[in-house]
Amino acid sequence: MREANITVSEAGFEAMGLEKLISLGREAGIRDFEELACHGTGAVIQVTVASRYDEAALSTLECVDQWEHVTETDDGHLYVIAFTAPALPDSLAAKTDDLVGTCDPQLNDRSATMSLVGSQESISGTIRAYEAAGISPDLLKLGPYEGRERPIDSLTDRQQQVIQTAFDMGYYDVPRAASTDEIAAELDLDASTVAEHLQRAERNVLGRLLE
């Protein structure tokens, strides 16, 4: 198992067609950012911002599939945004599916960083797919994966939360005692998001166990 730490620059956001979405978030004052689901050419993200987005502008962006202002908290305004980068090819999604996971992407002032975890071949294939699409991520580090040892620790925090809730509610009982809709209601998530988290979590855990 290998891990690569990469950075995508402002020019990379522009090449993907995401620069306006990033700009709107910065204008609203991003306080917290979490990836809920990833599909290679896009993602579902949860964002807390200091003030509300320019929602009229958000609705007009080509890259935004859907968005929701979830609530206002003491920390600011919580949004869930689903987006697809219009300039990324579908072949990139196929490459990222070979990864065990992308770990805790972080959005910085002028760039985004993430860890790609998987085989050397899957990491190299993902980076080549980015380069073929005109994005040149900076490779900060490549080496053995030094993450936590338990298979479940290879999951993102959100994947762990969803799979633990599913287990506690009886989703894996025989016969099954809970549905994805019921898990989604418990976590206040969309059922399709829960289903994707479960599928990726199960694949990642099995991948670690069957290595």
Q: Nutshell version of this structure?
A:
The chain is of the alpha+beta class and 211 residues long. It contains eight helices and eight strands.
What does it look like?
The longest helix has 19 residues, at 191-209. The chain starts with a strand and ends with a helix. Among the domains are: 18-86, no CATH class; 151-209, Orthogonal Bundle (Arc Repressor Mutant, subunit A), CATH 1.10.10. It has 211 residues and is of the alpha+beta class. A hairpin with a 3-residue loop joins strand 2 and strand 3. The model has no long low-confidence stretch (mean pLDDT 85). The protein has a 4-stranded antiparallel sheet with strand order 6-7-1-8. The chain is built from 8 helices and 8 strands; from the N terminus they run E-H-H-E-E-H-E-E-H-E-E-H-E-H-H-H.
Q: Work out the helicity level.
A: 25-40%
User: What order do the strands of the largest sheet run in, or round the barrel if closed?
Assistant: 6-7-1-8
Q: Report the total helices.
A: 8
Looking at the structure, what is the overall shape? globular
**What order do the SSEs take from the amino end to the carboxyl end, as H and E?**
EHHEEHEEHEEHEHHH
Number of strand segments: 8
Mean pLDDT: 85
Radius of gyration: 17 Å
Quickly give the structural class. alpha+beta
Alpha carbon gap, first and last residue: 9 Å
Contiguous low-pLDDT stretches (5 residues minimum) are none
What is the makeup of the main sheet? Answer: 4 strands, antiparallel
Estimate what percentage of residues fall within beta strands: 25-35%
